[in-house]
Amino acid sequence: MSENVSPEQTQSQGPNQDLDHQSLTSPLLSTQYRSANSTSQVAIVGVNLCPIQSLDYDIVSLVGFFNNLAVENIAGVKFVITSNMMLSGRYETAFLVFFLSNLGLTLFAAIITAFIAPAAAGSGIPEVKAYLNGVDAPGIISLRTCIVKIMGSISAVSSSLLVGKAGPMVHTGSCIASLLGQGGSRRYGLTWKWLRFFKNDRDRRDLVTCGSAAGIAAAFRAPVGGVLFALEEMASWWTSGLLWRAFFTTAVVAIILRALIDVCLSGKCGLFGKGGLIMFDVYSANISYHIADVPPVLLVGIVGGILGSLYNFLLDKVLRVYAIINVKSITYRIFIACAISIFTSCLLFGLPWLASCQPCPFDTAEACPTIGRSGNYKKFQCPPGHYNDLASLIFNTNDDAIRNLFSRNTDSEFQHSTMLIFFVTCFFLSIVSSGVVAPAGLFVPVIVTGASYGRFVGMLLGSHTNLNHGFYAVLGAASFLGGSMRMTVSLCVIILELTNNLLLLPMIMMVLLVSKTVADTFNGNIYDLIMKAKGFPYLEAHAEPYMRQLTVADVVSGPLQLCHGIEKVGNIVHILKTTSHHGFPVIDEPPHSESPVLYGLILRAHLITLLKKRAFLRTPVRIGVEAFRHFLADEFAKKGLGNVDRIEDINLTDEEMEMFLDLHPFTNASPYTVVETMSLAKASTLFREMGLRHLLVVPNTSIVRNFTITIFLNLDS
User: Fold this and answer.
1) Which are the contacts of 389, defined by CB distance < 8 A and separation ≥ 6?
2) 249, 209 in Cβ contact below 8 A?
3) Nearest 5°: phi and psi at 456?
4) Quick one: 206 exposed, middle or buried, by C-beta within 10 A (0-12, 13-18, 19+)?
5) How does pLDDT run across 354-365, given as a tens digit for each residue?
6) How far apart, in whole angstroms, are the C-alpha atoms of residue 209 and residue 235?
7) Could you give the angle at the alpha carbon of 284 between the alpha carbons of 228 and 369, nearest 5°?
8) Alpha helices, DSSP H only, in 116-200?
9) How far apart are CA 484 and CA 50, in angstroms?
10) Does the N-terminal peptide bond of residue 369 adopt cis geometry, omega within 30 degrees of 0?
11) How many angstroms separate the CA atoms of 48 and 28, rounded?
């Protein structure tokens, strides 16, 4: 179903591209402008206040490092204590420690999310993607959400729930960027005056885009992949200037992370060491493959696409069920999270008992059985000199499990039954865990699931292929990512940066293209499905075929609310109180013009600022630029979250309601306009490609009879 939704029906914040200007360095209200054009400059205050500059995105890298450091140490202590008890034969006590620690961590994450910042639940990528497309959902990028996202992600990932930290890192990076863009948080006394230059929708949108790129770079140590991820998946509007800003951002993140990792490699970070910040350097040697290896690789891509689409379908259904339950009360949300934690702990502790013990190989480069937190050869309940291959995957963090699956020269390490059990477990646990009221990413669970599937295929092929099982695990992860998330270029680069080998490129490209093509025949990508389930409107990049048969006049909505160039204060108050529109056309009529004419567009926030300042006129006369003397540029800047002025908070006397306001100096005199006969498809493309929020529709005739502000949002299933 498709429908047209106005920005008044959603809390759309969209990029104010219609407030754009040619120069990024020209001062506001410069005398070089003609009077007719200078009147529109206050309408774009804050957009062009300063030359292009960068921000301190090392904050994101520090948060990413802290996240990984905390997860590795918390989960590491849990696994060390449990393993030591298992070694001493105290199985019941080991299970109790494992069970209670997981439950406590999950309960903590659920409580702070449910009571403090419900917007922090889930991955966060769909919310940020919707924000960059123009939907400003309440609280998704606030300081409170950011803090809960960090703490909740650490707890949830450490609790052995099959959730990831990449999505929460993207959300965290976007929150940090938004806070920088609004000058900090006035509510908590964290403000910086120099950041006022970025207090507008356009700059904040670009900063959030850079923040999402920084989040991927911090989660995977993939700076180039982070830039491409923001370009391919997150941003609805992209320019060359934004490209280099995002690239600089991820470069800073990568450098800071590298320096911090070097410190930890010296043993100063507790249990943080080989695990944590992912770099699966598992293919330092040359890899050779032949034309005979192409059919099995294509098979991996096809099956991965089918599995990925099935994963999306089931996850969408589960999230909808959770949504029905979660609306009842907070108690239900926390109960579901605890129930899933209990089920997960019992399953993870019980499944390794089904696997048979394997004798330790003689040519292994590491100790067998593994003593400590991570390793390929977990002893679990096995006798000396043996290891439990399923426990080697389950009793590790997700990062270490992926490293074990990706490792080469380990073709004989895992049994067929082990890999099949692990794949099925990851597939379903990642689905039921994603809907808990806690920060829960999808990237890492999908990689784990896909890697186990790919390695299982490699084991089935056995001697019929020249590729080792670790390589098939990489291809399986790529196919499952492509089938679920439907990205190609960014995923390809992220996987290459993870595995640190360019020789994998041809096969990974082939697998991603095949899996995405196959999965696209069944449903959409997972983030789009989640956005739709959460009710976020989203403007697609392409126009639907039916739009070519319609004009913009066919979809405009009314009744029209507009302002005159010189308007009575009472009329402005009435319009603001009776509508939720965020922008209003401004027209001039005789005697201020020879005939009715569209002068421009004025924003709701600017009207409220004018009313607060009470710069009223007793007679309806045009005063022009003289009005600027009563205002500072900062007064028209974008307000921070929670600081938006409301018309209900302004009290005016009856005498003031009869006065007038000259809106000309504060109106954007050059808004984007289209004629009513323009194709709906062309208007939709213009709206999306130019990053607009408001688009004025004017009639063909010389009489101004029908203006409207319309956003076209495609909600096709």
Assistant:
1) 355, 358, 413, 414, 415, 418
2) no
3) -65, -40
4) buried
5) 888 888 887 777
6) 6
7) 110
8) 125-133, 143-158, 166-181
9) 41
10) yes
11) 8
Q: Whole-angstrom Cα distance, residue 305 to residue 513?
A: 10
pLDDT score, position 375: 65
Q: How far apart are CA 577 and CA 574, in angstroms?
A: 5
Q: Work out the burial of residue 288: count CB atoms within 10 Å of its CB; fewer than 13 is exposed, 13-18 middle, 19 or more buried.
A: exposed
Taking only the tens place, the pLDDT of each residue in 226-239 is 999 999 999 888 88
| Per-residue pLDDT tens digits for 501-522 | 788 888 999 999 999 999 999 9
Length of the chain: 717
Encode 439-462: b = buried (16+ Cβ within 10 Å), e = exposed: bbbbbbbbbbbbbbbbbbbbbebe
Please give the single-letter amino acid code of residue 490: S
Look up the pTM and report it: 0.82
**How far does the chain reach from its first CA to its final CA, in angstroms?**
7
For residues 112-122, one letter each, b for 16 or more C-beta atoms within 10 angstroms of the residue's C-beta and e for the rest, the string is bbbeebbbbbb
Burial (0-12, 13-18, 19+ Cβ within 10 Å), 517: middle
Q: How many CB atoms lie within 10 A of CB 690?
A: 14
Q: What is the pLDDT of residue 371?
A: 66
CA distance 359 to 376: 13
